[in-house]
Design goal:
The complex is a heterodimer of chains A (498) and B (166). With 498 residues, chain A is mainly α. In chain A, 73% of the residues lie in helices and 1% in strands. Chain A contains 22 helices and two strands. A two-stranded antiparallel ribbon of chain A has the order 1-2. In chain B, strands 1-2-3 form a three-stranded antiparallel β-sheet. The chains are: A mainly alpha (498), B mainly alpha (166). Chains A and B meet through helix 8, helix 9, helix 18, helix 19 and helix 20 of A and helix 2, helix 3, strand 3, helix 4 and helix 5 of B.
């Protein structure tokens, strides 16, 4: 394993890889610090800049952006009580009270160091688990692969914000979009409306740009010009005694492991990880009464967990080709642009990709900590960039990025259509994550579904005779049913209270 | 409870359009039902498989359409239940609807004229118009941001990445 890991570290002999790492980290901090823009939008916007780049360089930039954006959200959460990302909400519960007490520097130091520790521990867990998982997945047949994709989609649909039913509809929309184009096995044109430009299917990057970035522009228009947020002065940065930091080690370790495990579950993601880790730390803390009033343990738990979830989400992506979060689903799009197919064969066919990701997560830690601490004052000001300017910049990059993907107007039209559709769907509270995941996994799912049937001479029992397939399909069903039942129970409780 | 619903109520004002989520859900479901019914019809009309053990090009989309239609009906039923039960409904609102609609128009226009106008004129014009729609009124910002964005795009895409932009 150490030899193969060296492949990843050797990629850093190229100065372009270092440039991508620093650029990605800076862009991630910038995106994360602006409330409303998250890592998904950031990664989608960065893809157009990776056209024509070496795959290793582009993936390092994207991973650095993803990790830094998760942290960037914490800075504004601490300084101005305005979390840049959903995953930083739990950080603001204790981070902002610390700022009000004049302990901004302590809060920022703890959050940055906990984030770094979270990434370090979770990357170690990623290396330990992803490789055996990919080796195990090599034994999967088409039936198991179909069921696995179904599990991924059902978890994302079931855990999506809003109702699991709407998550299911979103999944249906995504899978239907994935069937547009020539049928892979027979070459029959499907749902192309007679337009040859649809024969290759919907271009993934413009769809991602439209759904995640352009739709956000319309939300910014709704919000109108933003009010200036006043940031507190930053004092005492790195002034925290080492003993106080060491006192947080148990909370950081526990939250990192929790964050990783939750990150692995498709659909759970960094925000759930930070909430769960915060709640667990509060329950196990010697001073639970301090939580919510300025507890360093609270900040450390939330930040270690949400950053740890980044590496967690990478595990199913790299080992199984199943993205664990919307951001990793978008990253699959970036890999596909480079002609790379994530999955169990990635470790044997293109080992430089997963091992460079592992290496970049580790090498990125000191860079991220340095950028975070040195630029804290700048990141705090980023939240005050006028919203109209952000809207214009995002829209401009979307149009140029979509055009550059194929240098034709077709992707521009697709991106615009999906931007408007994304806005309408979000208004209807239909989650976008299952659509993206289904769009990415759709072809693989259908191909394996048909292969499984053909390999079993057209008999459907292949889906209920293999123990592994049965277990996976059962998990998929439970992923739909359980969140639905708990929602129904909560609604009944509300109704009886009324 | 009726008072609560009336207090929030439907709104159709120039600064906000608001409706109850279950009703909006029903409208959305009706639209999705039509789309997926069309999808189902087209999937069912795809050529039958040549190989008897395969489900053909239309097999998977047909199954998918049926499953999604069932889910759409389930969402509609849940919307009706939410309308009837005493729990307060959630409201969906679109603030500054005139500007949102104007921006949708701008986006469509930009997608039509992007190539004809050329990248830089298109970015400069539409960036300024988007900022105006978002409420920016300071002349320096309205000029400075599009120019900076245009320069950034030119340097990165044209010079650094050598992308052939119109």
């Amino acid at each position: 394993m150490l030899e193969t890991l060296a492949i990843g570290f050797s990629a850093f002999g190229d100065p372009m890889v270092w440039f991508a790492l620093v650029f990605g980290a800076l862009a991630g901090y910038l995106i994360g610090a602006i409330p409303g823009l998250g890592p998904s939008l950031g990664v989608a916007l960065l893809i157009p800049f990776t056209y024509g780049m070496d795959p290793v360089v582009s993936i390092v930039g994207l991973v650095a952006l993803y990790a830094a954006a998760e942290y960037g959200g914490a800075i504004t959460a601490i300084l101005i009580n305005s979390p840049g990302t959903a995953a930083a909400v739990a950080t603001s519960w204790d981070g902002y009270p610390l700022t009000q007490q004049g302990r901004t520097g302590e809060a920022l130091t703890v959050s940055i160091l906990s984030s770094g520790a979270g990434i370090f521990i979770s990357t170690l867990l990623l290396i330990i688990t992803a490789i055996p998982l990919s080796e195990f997945a090599l034994r999967f047949g088409p039936g198991e692969y179909f069921a696995l994709a179904l599990v991924g989609l059902s978890l994302v649909a079931g855990l999506a914000e809003g109702s699991p039913l709407k998550g299911t509809v979103a999944m249906g929309i995504g899978l239907a979009l994935a069937t547009i184009g020539l049928d892979v096995q027979t070459g029959t044109p499907r749902f192309t409306m007679g337009n040859p430009e649809f024969f290759e299917g919907l271009p993934l990057v413009p769809v991602l740009l439209g759904l995640y970035a352009l739709s956000e522009v319309l939300f910014m228009i709704e919000d109108g010009p933003s009010e200036k947020l006043k940031s507190a002065p930053i004092n005492g940065l790195m002034g925290l005694p080492v003993k106080a930091i060491l006192g947080l080690k148990t909370a950081i370790l526990r939250s990192s492991v929790l964050g990783y495990v939750i990150g692995v579950i498709p659909g759970a993601g960094a925000s759930i990880a930070s909430f769960v880790a915060y709640a667990v730390s509060k329950r196990m803390s010697k001073t639970p009464e301090k939580f919510g009033k300025g507890s360093l343990e609270g900040v450390a738990s939330s930040e270690a967990a949400n950053n740890s979830a980044v590496a967690g989400a990478m595990a199913p992506l790299l080992a199984l080709g199943i993205p664990g979060s919307p951001t990793t689903a978008i990253m699959i799009g970036a890999l596909m642009v480079q002609g790379i197919q994530p999955g169990p064969l990635l470790f044997t066919k293109s080992p430089e990709i997963p091992y460079t990701i592992f290496a970049s997560l580790w090498i990125g830690i000191p860079i991220m900590v340095l950028i975070g601490l040195a630029g804290a004052k700048i990141w705090a000001r980023v939240a005050n960039i006028p919203r109209p300017a952000i809207a214009a910049i995002v829209a401009g990059i979307c149009y140029v990025g979509a055009y550059a993907s194929h240098t034709t107007m077709f992707p521009v039209h697709v991106m615009t259509a999906f931007g408007i559709l994304g806005y309408i769907l979000r208004k209807l509270e239909i989650p976008l994550a299952p659509i993206i995941l289904a769009l990415v996994l759709g072809e693989m799912m259908e191909t394996n579904f048909r292969r499984a049937l053909i390999s079993n001479k057209g008999e459907w029992d292949i889906f209920y005779t293999s123990p592994m397939t049965v277990i996976l399909i059962l998990i998929a069903v439970l992923a739909f049913v359980l969140p639905g039942l708990s929602q129904l129970r909560a609604r009944r409780a509300k109704a009886s209270a009324v | 409870m009726e008072d609560y619903k009336k207090a929030l109520g439907w709104r159709l004002r120039w600064d906000v359009v608001r409706g109850s989520l279950p009703v909006v859900d029903l409208i959305g479901c009706a639209a999705l039902f039509v789309v997926f019914w069309q999808y189902y019809s087209q999937a069912a009309a795809l050529p039958a498989p040549l190989n008897k053990i395969d489900i053909g090009a239309g097999g998977f989309p047909t199954l998918l359409a049926l499953a999604t239609l069932i889910a759409i009906v389930a969402v509609s039923i849940s919307a009706i239940v939410r309308l009837l039960d005493p729990v307060p409904v959630t409201w969906v609102s679109v603030r500054r609807p005139v500007f949102v609609l104007a921006t949708v128009g701008l986006l469509v226009l930009q997608s039509i004229y992007f190539e004809r106008l050329g990248t830089l004129p298109s970015v400069l014009t539409f960036a300024a118009l988007t900022m105006l729609a978002c409420g920016e009124r300071r002349p320096l910002h309205l000029i400075g941001v599009p120019v900076a964005l245009g320069a950034f795009i030119y340097v990165v895409f044209n010079l650094a990445l050598a992308v052939n932009l119109p």
